């Protein structure tokens, strides 16, 4: 009689993976939705980065149980729906301030946006599903597809690269430094790879070396990104040490509620508020006063005496830089621009920048010739886009690249090709979104542009957050959300040399994708070879 050794029961991790893979029906859908919503907690301002591990690991385990490409697509879409609905809920708050009569459709608008954006994770999931199940190849293909499709999301149609996974590292200065090499795209790729890699620990049919080596390699890459960032920051000049001589800024944050901003009875009061705040104590020692996007509720070109009134906020030895809505006549109908202008103390208008990347449905109506939606645009007239990114000359200061509102979220559109300004200016009006996560996410996105380009960023927002950030992403001065006040600060100096990302752009990210594609192919071939050998050995035993 021969004693039999009972099979060793699988550990809790394989059991959890098997449970997630075995879910069916509404339970499977609910799990994917919850995992996606959980992943949004890693975004600003919560920064719960560790939740990315169970979220993406869980999704990969769920894909192991998908019976078809369509099932994998559905899992990816539900995960994306949860991720974007939880991360972009604040978009609906703009209805309260701008279109209260449309509040009944607000949930549909938020879910419609989330559902449309969820198409990109939905495409990544079946791409990974086609790779061998429970293998390093599936992990590599998933990370590659997720990151590549996030890049597509940031460029297709008008593009919307909001809440990229790389922004989850904005809780500290050292953790975002690697975007100077490979941009937020590269950091996002490293993040999703590291977050999904622990799924390999439950793959019992993989050799131990590979089962532990896959997450180990992903962790090593993440440590390289974070550790390299820490070294980069440690070797940089001290925060506030390098400034532009003779340039002294004053940012004005009026904190005017959006639902009162365009009230005709209050317009003059709002203008007077910005004028009086600009001229508060210390005004004579400032060289440049900066007002946010559409700071005053008038249209330049229509309001008499507006330019003259604003001139009083221009320091004697500098200029007022202001966001302003302006009107140009001369065509079949007037053209409305969202602009930044420079006004000198003598009333002369210097350089001007017109916003070129407009917000769909907020500043213009897509297909407005076909769809009767003009009434949703400002005053029934959509904004006209400017010619594109440009460097603007500023009296008494280095040339600047202006970014109006969410133009700061597009990494490839920050500076014109072949030009390098001395600083970035982001004017915005986040009062639409109250005290939600929206303004903090907007700030986190804008901050990454400073690190990517190696340029200081000055951000003036009507209701906050207004900041002065140096070329390494360190905040030197700040006015918090809904605080009314002024922010006096010097202008930080740019890095002496452009960053790798400023020189190479998205090609560094493309190279990372190419390397990962080779790794995925090698892992898939290795898995196939082992399967063939195992099948051959089994056949020879019969």
UniProtKB/TrEMBL annotation:
PANTHER family named among the record's database cross-references? APOLIPOPROTEIN N-ACYLTRANSFERASE
Which HAMAP family does its entry note?
Lnt (MF_01148)
**The keyword ATP-binding is assigned to this record:** no
What family is it from?
Answer: Belongs to the CN hydrolase family. Apolipoprotein N-acyltransferase subfamily.
Tell me, what does this protein do in biology?
Answer: Catalyzes the phospholipid dependent N-acylation of the N-terminal cysteine of apolipoprotein, the last step in lipoprotein maturation.
All copies of domain CN hydrolase, residue ranges: 252-493
EC numbers, comma separated: 2.3.1.269
Kindly list the GO CC terms recorded for this protein: plasma membrane
| GO MF annotations, alphabetized | N-acyltransferase activity
Positions of transmembrane segments: 41-61, 73-93, 105-127, 139-160, 180-202, 214-234, 507-525
Grouped into one coarse class, the protein's main location is: membrane
Which GO annotations describe the biological process of this protein?
A: lipoprotein biosynthetic process
Q: In which pathway does it act?
A: Protein modification; lipoprotein biosynthesis (N-acyl transfer)
* GN (gene name): lnt
* Protein name as it appears in the record: Apolipoprotein N-acyltransferase
Keywords, A to Z? Acyltransferase, Cell membrane, Lipoprotein, Membrane, Transferase, Transmembrane, Transmembrane helix
Report the CDD domains cross-referenced here. ALP_N-acyl_transferase
What is the protein's membrane topology class? Multi-pass membrane protein
Q: Where, per UniProt, does this protein localize?
A: Cell membrane
Q: Does the keyword Lipoprotein apply?
A: yes
